[in-house]
């Protein structure tokens, strides 16, 4: 018997724009001079008995330091779909880049689910090289280490089930320990790809994003995403504004703020 389907939401909290040439390792192809928008999301997975949040976004300090626009604090963004960050019990951290863990303080009651490999990567020798470390923030990593000692981190070693119809899967590529989230929904298995594919274009055209630990693992990850999802349309990238075109608003008045993913594309 299949598990009870979850409701799944993507909620926007920030945005940025940059030349294509800066976003793809091949320089963006023939259209390299054009400007691409980038949306920053967190995700909510709501079940009958338990709610899971995926990632924590960045803070106002991060936005100022990195010249990003914070549209709304993550806690406020999640409230639009009925999720209270202050009482959330479980947050899946796909990886430890600033825009995925920078809002952790907004989840004071949560346990953080993280890959062993990601913590080792973010606290190890790779961080001495700016090519790998520039998207990490030392204070965020130190905060997660403190959470370890406070018994607030649940470590995962590769692919693991978290609950019926919910699992994490180590893909790597973008970072050494990036994990994606697989969720059972009314339209079958849906995959929250996070930064294993920032844009649909990364996966569809095998054109990797410019921040990458292992190009081969990133490209292999595109095939893994397709294996995990029941339909390629059920793969949700981490930063693509097209998500707002492909999925319906979570509720009236939430256009451009939150979409509902579990019913398939609009």
Mean pLDDT: 96
Assembly form of the protein: single chain
Relative strand content: 25-35%
Rg over alpha carbons: 17 Å
Which topology does CATH recognise?
Answer: Metallo-beta-lactamase, Chain A
Derived from helix and strand composition plus strand pairing, the structural class reads: alpha/beta
Please provide the count of β strands: 13
Keywords:
266 residues, Metallo-beta-lactamase, Chain A, eight-stranded mixed β-sheet, 24% helix, 27% strand
Question: Can you give a write-up of this model?
Answer:
The protein has helices spanning 60-66, 74-79, 98-101, 116-122, 130-133, 138-149, 200-204, 215-228, 243-246; strands at residues 7-19, 35-46, 51-54, 69-70, 90-92, 111-115, 153-156, 160-163, 166-170, 179-185, 188-194, 235-237, 258-260. The protein is an alpha/beta fold and 266 residues long. It has one domain (7-260): Metallo-beta-lactamase, Chain A. The strands form 2 sheets. Strands 1, 2, 3, 4, 5, 6, 7 and 13 form an 8-stranded mixed sheet that branches. A 5-stranded mixed sheet has the order 8-9-10-11-12, with helices on one face. Strand 2 and strand 3 (51-54) form a beta hairpin.
């Amino acid at each position: 018997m299949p598990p009870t389907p979850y409701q799944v939401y993507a909620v926007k909290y920030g945005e940025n724009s940059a030349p294509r040439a800066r976003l793809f390792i091949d320089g963006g192809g023939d259209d390299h001079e054009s400007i691409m928008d980038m949306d920053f999301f967190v995700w909510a997975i709501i079940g009958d008995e338990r709610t899971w949040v995926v990632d924590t976004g960045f803070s106002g300090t991060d936005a100022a330091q990195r010249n990003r626009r914070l549209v709304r604090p993550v806690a406020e963004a999640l409230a639009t779909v009925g999720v209270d960050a202050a009482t959330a019990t479980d947050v899946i951290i796909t990886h430890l880049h600033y825009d995925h863990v920078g809002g952790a303080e907004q989840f004071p009651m949560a346990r953080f689910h993280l890959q062993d490999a990601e913590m080792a990567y973010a606290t190890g020798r790779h961080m001495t090289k700016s090519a790998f470390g520039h998207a990490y923030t030392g204070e965020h990593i130190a905060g997660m280490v403190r959470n370890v000692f406070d018994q607030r981190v649940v470590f995962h070693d590769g692919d693991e089930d978290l609950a019926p119809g919910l699992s994490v899967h180590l893909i790597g590529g973008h970072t050494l320990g990036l994990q994606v989230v697989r969720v059972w929904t009314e339209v079958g298995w849906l995959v929250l790809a996070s930064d294993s594919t920032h844009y649909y274009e990364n996966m569809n055209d095998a054109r990797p994003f410019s921040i990458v630990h292992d190009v081969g693992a990133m490209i292999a990850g595109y095939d893994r995403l397709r294996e995990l999802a029941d339909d390629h349309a059920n793969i949700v990238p981490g930063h693509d504004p097209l998500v707002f075109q492909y999925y319906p608003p979570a509720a009236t008045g939430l256009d451009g703020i939150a979409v509902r993913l579990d019913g398939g594309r609009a």
